[in-house]
Amino acid sequence: MFVLRLSRRGRRCDAPADGIIADPLACTWDPASIQCKVGQTSTSDNYCLTADQVTTLRRIYSGPTDEHGRLLYPGYQLRGSELNWAGIIVPTTATGTTGDQNFVRETLRYQIFDSPQPALTYKDIKFTAAYYRKVMELGAGIYDATDPDLSAFKKAGGKLILWHGLGDQHIPAVGTMAYYKAVEKAMGGEAATTDFARLFLLPGVAHCGGGQGPDKLDALTAITDWVTQGKAPASLLTSTVDSTGKVTSSRPTYPFPAIAENTTGGSADDPSSYTSVESTAEANLTLDWLGSFRSGYEQVGNWIHGKWVISKGKA
Hints:
The protein has 315 residues and is of the alpha+beta class. 26% of the residues lie in helices and 15% in strands.
């Protein structure tokens, strides 16, 4: 596994000395830039990628697509998340499987279809628009959570803090960004949304924690203060804690689409080094995918007189 440090501007995708990319959505680095030359062999001192590895990386960065190149999921792995892929996206041995393969296999066999199909594997998936619609229609009403209309929640006085690690190797953070932008559209714009909901993105942080970036934060106090005192969180402090419980580094994270940029030249571990700067890439994010963020699809299932009955879940 390699560590991505190059950038579209030749400056490590704007990563500081600690190598953590604050704005990976803006990074368009092409792995072909380190493809092995004819006759070259990759070594630890002079690392390069084979042509097949370049193709694989491009596909991981692009996300799953149908036969026409349209995304099948509103997200993809961000550059800078590579150290979190081992065992989940890529196998740790030449003949091993991955967590993603195993998750897909069991979902296909026992969750998606109307009856168990224990022989199916991930190889049975067809990356076509027709297969996507077939699979999604089977359980979308029960399993999806893509409704962007949170008006009832807001009207009831609800407050929502979303956070996602930008290095998440299981659920790409781009999907959460896309959903949040759909909420903004449904709720009347950015200001109307930040009035009750805010998204915080943690650079380098893997799925629910871990990874290379500061992954400890206290969102509970922040949302309690928001609900009880009307104090909306302008930032959240994230920290890295060692095995003894000592904080070794900290940095702020700001509400989407802002990122924390080291504007002082100070230590990357010192939160005072950072300033809130809008990410143009996040603010302008648009995705062309086969699904949609919509209302009215929800269904609920209940046992009624010994039968499993599916009914409309939202009036």
